Every structure is written in C-alpha cells, then in structure tokens.
Amino acid sequence: MKTLYLFFSLLVLVGTAMAQCPNRNLVFESQGAVDNFPNRYPGCKALKASLIIRKDQVTSLEALNGITSIAGNLEITDNFGLANLHGLETLTSIKGNLYTYNSGLTNLGGLENLTEIGGSLNLGPAAKLTSLAALQNLRSIGKDIDLYGINVQNLAGLQNITSINGRISMVSLHALTSLQGLHNLTRTGMTFSILGALKLTNLNGLEKLKSIGAALPGSTIYLGSLIIRDTPIKNLASLQNLTYLAEDLVLHNTALPDLQGLNNLSTLLGSLELNSNALLENVDGLEKLDSIGQNLTLIQNASLTNLNGLQNLVSIGKRNEHFVTRFLTIAGNPRLSVCDLKPVCDFQEVQGEDFMMIEGNAPGCSSFNELYDSCRDLPVFSFSADTLFFTVAEGAAPSPQSIQLAISDSGNPGVLLTPSMDSEWLIIPVTDKVGSLSFSVNTAGLAPGSYTAIVTAQAPGYRTAFLNVVLTITPAAQLTTVRINAGGESITADDGRTFSSDQYFGGTDRTYAIPSGEIKYTSNNALYRTERSAAAFSYNIPVVNGDYAVVLHFAEIWFGSPQGRPGGAGKRMFNVDMEGSRKLENYDIYAKANGALAAVEEVFYLTVTDGTLNILFSSGAADLPTVAAIEVVPASEYIRSTLTIPVIADAYVHASFTDENFGTSGELIVKSGEENITRNTYLKFPLTGLIQVSSARIRVYGYNVESTMKVNLSAYAVDNDAWTETGITWNNAPASGTVPLTYTTVNNAAGYRDIDVTEFVQSQVAGDKLVSIMLKNRTFVNKKLVFQSKENTLGQAPELVIVTHRPTDAGSRISQEVRPVSLFSEMENQKSGIYPNPVRKQFILRLSKRHEGAVSLQLINKLGRTYDIAPAEQTKKSDQTEVDISGHTLNPGIYLLKVRSATATEHLKLLIAN
C-alpha cells in the first residue's frame, strides 16, 4: 500500500511540475520548438521571463495560444518567416518591452487583446510592418514608444494611449502621412521627436497634446524636447493646446512658413533652435513665449525676415542651472536685418561676444558689432499705445484710427513702417515721419472672426517699436435660435440643447402630460411626456429675418399609452401650416412612428421676412392636433444626419452544439424553450466617428417560421466586444445584461423589425466605440425566429440606424474588422458646392463625400414650395454632376437646394438670377 501511495504522489508531483512555466527566457528558433511548447509546459499561461522568437524557421505561433502574460520582454528579431503573431490572442500583459527588429512582420495580428506594456514599445526596423491596428486595446505603456523604419501610414491602434512617461520617437517612417492614432495623447514625460518622415505634412492627431517633458524625480534636471527634423511639415496648427516644453524646441529642415499653432506655448525651459527651414519667413506664433531657458539658435533660414513673434520675450539663457553654458547664435539668415530684441541685447551685455555668433545675416544684424551698436543706449521709437483695436460688423466699413509715434530724442529719422505677414487687410499710413499716424482696415472678403497684425517702426540708429493691431469682425446679423418644450417647463437635453418653458403660443390654452414612461428612439423622455394639444392653436415666435430649419417633435402619448385610450392609425390626424404654407396635412403620429410612445421629428426649411415665425396647428380628420417641442435653428447651423451602419459581426449560438460556431451561416436564429433548443443571436456594430447619438435602433429582417403567433424578440446589452464572428460559441459567448433594453414582436410576415437601443448605444459612443447586442426570446414559447445575416446572398443584413445632431469626427477611421463603408472611411463634415452661383439655367453640383448612392434634389422657394430636380448621371470617377433647371419656371431670388442621399441631407443656398 505504501508503495502505491508513493507512486501516486510521484505522479502528482511530476504533473504539477510539468504544468509550471519555466523560470527562464523562452527562446524559439524553430517551428518544432514552438509546436512542442504545450507538450513541454502543459497548462503554462503566465511566462515568468521573456519570450524570444528569432530566425526564419519560425512561421506560426498558434501553439502558444493560452499564454496570458509575459513577465519579461516579447522579442521578435531576425525573423523574416513570421508574418503575424496569431496564436497570442490570449495575451493581455507584457511587463517588459515589446521589441520587433529585422523581422518579416506585416502586422501585429494576434495582439488584439493586449492591454498593457510595462516597459517600452520598440518597433523596427521592420520594412514590411504596415499596420499597428492590432494594438487597439492597448491602454498603457510604461516607458517609451520607439518606431523606426516601419511602413505604416498612420498610428491607428494607439488611440487608447493618453499619457507616456518616457519618450515618443519616430525615425524614418517614410510612408507616414498622419499622426491619427495619437489623437488622445495629452502628455509625454520625455522627448517627442519626428525624424525623416518624408510624407508627413502636418501634425493632425496631436490636438490634445498639452505638455512635453518634466523634471526627473527628485531633481532639477528637466528632460523633454519637441524635435521635428527632415520632415516637410507645413503647419503646426495641431499643437494649439501645447503650453509646456521642459527642454528644447528644435525645427530643422521643415516646410514651415511660420510657427502659428504654438500660440499657447508659454514655457520653454530649454533652447529654441530653428535650423535650415528654407520657407520660414517669421516666428509668428510665439507671442506668448516669455522666456527661453537656455540657447537661442537661428541658422540658415533663407526666408526669415523678422523676429516680431518674439516681441514679448523677456529673457534668454536665465534658467537656474549654474553648470550649463549658454549660447546665442543668429547666423546665415540673409533676409534678417533686425535682431536687437531686448532679451538679445540683455544676453549680449551679460555673456559677451565669446558666447554669441552673429554673422551672415542682412545688414543691421550681420555682425556682433552691428548688434552691439543697435543694442547700446540709442534713442527709441515708441507708440502711444501697445494695441490698436478695430471692431466692425460684417460688410461694414470702420472708421480710421490714429495713434502717436514718438522718439526719445530731437532727431528727424526716416521711419520705416512694416506690417507682419498675412495682414493685407491693414492699411498703414504712407509716411516716413513721426507724429500722428492714421491706420485703417479693408474688411472685404473677410469672414467674421478675429485678425491680428504687428507693425514695426524702425530706422538706423534707433531702437525698434512694435504696435499690435487687432481686427474683430462680428456677423452682420445673428440669426435666432429658439427651442420650446411645448406644455412643459424648461429642460436641458442630454446633448446640451436647452428647451425653454412653453411660450409664444396662442389660441386655445390646453396642455397634457404623462407622469412617466419610456419614449422609444430618444433618451430625452421628459421632452416628449408633455404636449400642447387643442382644437386649434398657434406659435408666433419672434426671430431675426433669415433662413431657418424648423423642427417639430411629436410623440403619441394618449392613443395607445397606458394612461390613454386604445391606439391605432387614424385615431389622431391634424394639419400644420408655417408662414401661411401647409406643411403637414392629416398628419398621423401613430402611423408615422409605428406605434405610441415613440419620438418623431419633422424638419422644414423656410425663410422668415417679417420678424415672426408663424406656426398654426389645426384639426384634421380625427381628434386634436398636438406638439411636444419646437426648435427654430438657423438653416446653416442645423445638423441632423441619419446614418445606417451595417453589422460588422453577426452569429447565433446553439445550446445543443456548445462548441460549434455558426458565424458563416446565412441565418440568424432566435428560439427559447427546453434547454437544448435555445438559440441566441449576437450582433456587433462600429460607432467610429460618432460624437453624439440622439436615437439608435437595430433593424433585423426576418419572421416566425413556425406559426402565426407574435413572438417576443428582446435586445440585451453586451459589454464585452472581444467576441468574433467566426469564434463565438455557446460556451464562450460573452454574458449579456439580465434586463432587456427593449423588445418587439415577430409574426409570420417577413419584414424589418426595429428595436430601440438608444441609451445603450449612447453609453458605448462615450466608451470604446463598439456596441454588441444579444437578441433572444425571453418568453420561452418554443417558436423559431429566423433573420437574414450579412452572409445571406439575399441581402437585408442587420443594421444600426443612428440619428445624430452633431457633425461626425473627421479624424476617425474604422478598425480592420469593419468592411469598407465610405460613410466611415470618408467622414469629413464638408459641404457640397454649387458653381456658378448665381444660377440661370444650369449649374455644376460638387457632391460632398458624405453622400453615397443615388441623390435626389429639390429646390425650395421662400414660400416653401418645392420643385423636384433631376440631376444628370454622375460618373463613378467624379464627384460632380450637371444640373439643368431650364425646364422649371422659377422667379429670381434665393432658394434652398435640398440634396438628399441614403447617408446625408444638406441644404445649400442658391440664387437664381434673371
């Protein structure tokens, strides 16, 4: 008996040892070694050291499936046989670094579930690596991001990284055209550098970056520079939120004409180095910079003409570190003649010639001695005020303004007045004398907004003076925005729109409200629970004359509601007139919404010419007219888009086949009953590019195949979006919520069924930009519901229909799992255009990329009358189409052109001439 016990114990100990992971690095140099891993280390999930994959013999990592964490590094080196990392799908954490160099990787597929890198992300050189999208769930990187010699066009995959403690370095990324992917980055703890990105012309994607660098812990040593070298950047506009640089600003061999975009940079603890920027004409954009902690270096900037952007600089080289030597270099700038800024002069006085290089610039700044003469105690120019302000309404002509220019001695120098670049709107006086100077502005062609210019007054032997000129153009007439909660109190919608309490109404004063209840297709339930309802009533809303979008909000809260009477089409039918023109006749809310307690919007475009918008509600064929809310918005500002988003993953799971996947089936099945017959359907949709959602509903096409019975179909929230269409089974399907979001019923008539999922989609827009839904029957009636999947050859795949009142995010792109849909791949919020305008008989319509498929056109006159217009056939290679209106009798004047497609609706202003 003892012998048997000892033998059994030995087997247990051996089995336990075999299940443990090794305490050393795992190095795989052959495919056989990889494939033997599960046999050699059964049950090993958490590696205790590094995983190193090298040499061309390794071509697949599928045998490593099950590894969840690596305590050391993941290194893929000297390996051209491994194209991706599939097999590591269960890996969530790397405590060390992720290295790839001299590898054949084309993508990082297999790392889709990686959320943490404790060390650095080091990629390259890897010339075949074209995508980082597999890192889409990576949320933290402990140290650096180093990208060298990889072939990516953008940085999509890094979008969840908001902060880096180390540096970000991009070297020789010759295919890089965009920094999108870093669009949530707010800070780096050390240097941010871009070197040799030969196709990168802007920094779009860095709009949230606020600070670069910081002091080393427990030290006064600061690290963190912004370095852009050998990269044809044309503007720095995306750095508008950058306020702090711990070390240097280095711009070398760029295509920058100025430094606009750095307008909020106030702290530069290191050096400013501008070197070999051939197109740099000025340093405008640095007006908020008050100090340069170390060196100022301006070398070989062939177009540089002035340093006016540094006018507010107080000091150079005064950072409090006694062991650091300061240098000031202004050399090889052949058009720069004035460099006697006060901080430059102060530096010269304190440091002297040994620490300065002034040479190769235009006369006036071509040598140390010339600078010395400019900086010594010379008479100075001075303006009587620092800033001259012009404020004018759009289209108006402002009066000239005068200011005094004085000198500190009794001389009579010839004054040269020079405006800064891009200030053609400023008219400077034609004089070379001091005294009263009259300035004026020409606002022709300028849009409302703020414009600034700097005027320098200079002469040989005198210190230069600077005058700021600020021009503000206000809109000619601000159109009115009015929002009214009919029959209710003031309320703020979840997207920030504020509706006032009921006002401007006339006629019979009668309102109705329900105390509670969910309203479908909106998250603003309270807005639709009140209504104004009477036999006849009106709204007379004071507005500034102009073109408006008028939005009427409805919900049937009486017929078909628990507090009211039985519902059905035809129970309430009424009319609506606006500005004397009928807009709705025998309108039936119940029929339009396909039921009670459902939000409906109707939008009308019209022109108000008498200062009052008149809306009349009158009885029609049945019962009383009603309205829940009214919006009056300038037509140019109103945005309402209905987006139809196709499903990107759909599959059903079967209780009898717990490990079988049905993702490629043409059917989606829902059935509940005995345990072994239950089937549930999972759907996944992308929300990329969406900023706000007003309503959301899922549409599925199918029917009850076993009876005429109306069977419950409920939608449940699924928070885990990691499931895949070809991987999901009954056993691994993600858990859903326990309470259904909403439901509908399905009978034996084939057709679309809509299910409201507004609130859950809104929560996902604010989160990971993916939404998963499970469909099931919760009444256990043992009836089979069949719907068409995206694999069904007949089409009619599941859809997510979104209504949004905000523009979509222009920078967003969908992930690789999403099928190409131009709605998301070209999400620019741009408008279509008309040429020529005014129009006589024909015009060219340039369609925005927001439109897809067939386009319908309507002309709408001031009275609301519509004219259907037939566009010429548009070629697939062009976004232009010719429109002929010669067949219509149209009076001269302003019209709205309504451009409508499946993906967008626009209203363009058009003037018809005689």
CATH fold name of the largest domain: Jelly Rolls
Span between termini: 113 Å
Residues in helices, as a percent range:
under 10%
Q: What is the CATH architecture term of the largest domain? A: Sandwich
* Structural class designation: mainly beta
Shape: flat
For the record, the count of structural domains works out to: 5
Please identify the oligomeric state: single chain
Describe what you observe in this structure:
It is found in: Secreted, Cell wall. One of its GO terms (cellular component) is cell envelope. It is a single chain. With about 900 residues, the protein is mainly β. The protein folds into 5 domains: about 1-150, Receptor L-domain (24 nucleotide stem-loop, u2 snrnp hairpin iv. U2 a', Chain A, Alpha-Beta Horseshoe); about 380-475, Immunoglobulins (Immunoglobulin-like, Sandwich), CATH 2.60.40.10; about 480-640, Galactose-binding lectin (Jelly Rolls, Sandwich), CATH 2.60.120; about 645-820, Galactose-binding domain-like (Jelly Rolls); about 830-910, Immunoglobulin-like (Sandwich). The protein is built from 9 helices and 68 strands. The strands form 15 sheets. It has a 14-stranded parallel beta sheet with strand order 1-3-5-7-9-11-13-15-19-21-23-25-27-28. Strands 51, 53, 55, 58, 60 and 61 form a 6-stranded antiparallel beta sheet that branches. A 5-stranded parallel beta sheet has the order 2-4-6-8-10, with no helix packed on it. The model is unreliable at about 1-20 and about 810-830 (pLDDT under 50).
